[in-house]
């Protein structure tokens, strides 16, 4: 009597992305590092200022915007923060205490001190006023034209988007971080737009 062959093992994970998220993150980090390393002196600041101009065109009506302090090869927010503050719009920055605690957005004005916190993050003093921003500028490792994003993988922004459903979600990154498709998980909340040095990618403009 024929014995049926055993089922293939290990079974494929139910939502296996192609490639795996950790592999995609490593690739995107390497591409982003190489892109920034190749920029001529002054070019990075020029491109970040272009992104700031694009953001100001789409930020209409926001009374408060959350940015972040860029690390490594992330597209920086300094020009956009300066433009935001110059328009009298409140600036907030993320504050992380631990991997498990929700990230908070704290009021910050250019010139205020920044403290080194969890994993070397530069962030406002823990006792700064918390705000619920109208618009959240989120760091990206990668994004696609359907406005899915992939971040560092700790889920801080996914959790913040779930907690602040009325805030506009704008991804912020270099145009070379775009991929044909970023596999998304059930908890991933899509962005409303992505701003790069090259322009704005909006949901209904694709
Ligand atoms: N500039 C910046 N600020 C941010 C974020 C971000 O992505 N960029 N965040 C977005 O969520 C939050 C912090 N999230 C983080 C999530 C993971 C790690 C982390 O695991 N870092 C590794 C090094 C990773 C690497 O090699 O690049 C470590 O410290 O070991 C750090 C911050 C809030 N502030
Ligand atoms: N709304 C949520 N509530 C609780 N946990 C969440 C929520 N959203 C995501 N997470 C958790 O966060 C973790 C990381 O998610 P994911 O791999 O999508 O990170 P990411 O989007 O790349 O990172 P980040 O949002 O920090 O930039 C997952 O383990 C997930 O369970």
Describe the structure.
- The chain has 206 residues and is an alpha/beta fold.
- It has a single domain, classed as Rossmann fold.
- The protein has helices at residues 21-37, 43-58, 78-86, 156-163, and strands spanning 64-66, 90-95, 104-107, 115-116, 122-123, 135-139, 142-143, 149-150, 168-172, 193-196, 199-202.
- β7 and β8 form a beta hairpin.
- α2 crosses α3 (78-86).
- The radius of gyration is 19 Å and the shape is globular.
- The model has no long low-confidence stretch (mean pLDDT 92).
- Bound molecules: ligand FFO and adenosine-5'-triphosphate (ATP).
Q: Bin the strand percentage.
A: 15-25%
CATH topology label: Rossmann fold
Q: Give the neighbour order of strands across the main sheet.
A: 3-2-1-6-9-10-11
Number of strands: 11
The chain-level structural class is: alpha/beta
Summed over residues and divided by their number, the pLDDT gives a mean of 92
CATH superfamily heading = NagB/RpiA/CoA transferase-like
General form:
globular
- The CATH class is identified as Alpha Beta
Regions with little confidence, pLDDT below 50 for 5+ residues: none
What's the SSE pattern? HHEHEEEEEEEHEEE
Major β-sheet profile: 7 strands, mixed
Binding site for substrate: 69, 74
Protein name: 5-formyltetrahydrofolate cyclo-ligase
GO molecular function, one term: metal ion binding
Binding site for ATP: 21-25, 149-157
